[in-house]
Design goal:
Blueprint: H1 3-13, E1 16-17, E2 24-25, E3 28-33, E4 43-45, H2 53-67, H3 69-86, H4 94-100, H5 104-117
Antiparallel strand pairs: 1-3, 2-3, 3-4
Helix pairs in contact: 1-5, 2-3, 2-5, 3-4, 3-5
């Protein structure tokens, strides 16, 4: 998946509506949150999940609140595998430390994989880690 596809997939899961084709303002992806019954549409910058660790952390937290262990388990397992690929030869205790140090892109990859496992994202992600 391209960076744009990853951003759009996560934004969609988080309730953002993105125009087709996507619109940008000062290099930032633009969209609005899907309205709730007591809400109005607000056009704003979509969080840059790929480079903002706080944004992807919040997205993961919201998905864990919404789906519980169904999301948390595949997300955690995938993140562990992604970080282990970079840290060959680590023992079982170290893998949790490497997972804690995962960058935002690695967390996005795990997020997309968890969405696929839960059938919340139907396209095959084929996300590759950038070294």
């Amino acid at each position: 998946m391209s960076d744009e596809e990853i951003r759009i997939a996560i934004a969609d899961a988080m309730g953002w509506e993105i125009s087709d084709p996507p619109e940008y303002e000062d290099g930032a992806l633009m969209g609005h949150i899907r309205p709730t019954p007591n809400d109005w549409r607000c056009w704003d910058m979509v969080p840059d999940y790929l480079s903002d660790l706080n944004a992807i952390r919040n997205a993961v937290g919201l998905m864990c609140e919404k789906h519980g262990w169904k999301f948390q388990e595949p997300y955690t397992n995938t993140l562990m595998l992604i970080t282990q690929r970079r840290r060959q030869g680590c023992n079982s205790t170290q893998k949790y430390f490497w997972m804690a140090e995962a960058d935002s892109r690695q967390r996005c990859e795990a997020f997309i994989d968890a969405l696929v496992i839960l059938n919340l994202y139907t396209e095959s992600p084929n996300v590759e880690t950038k070294e």
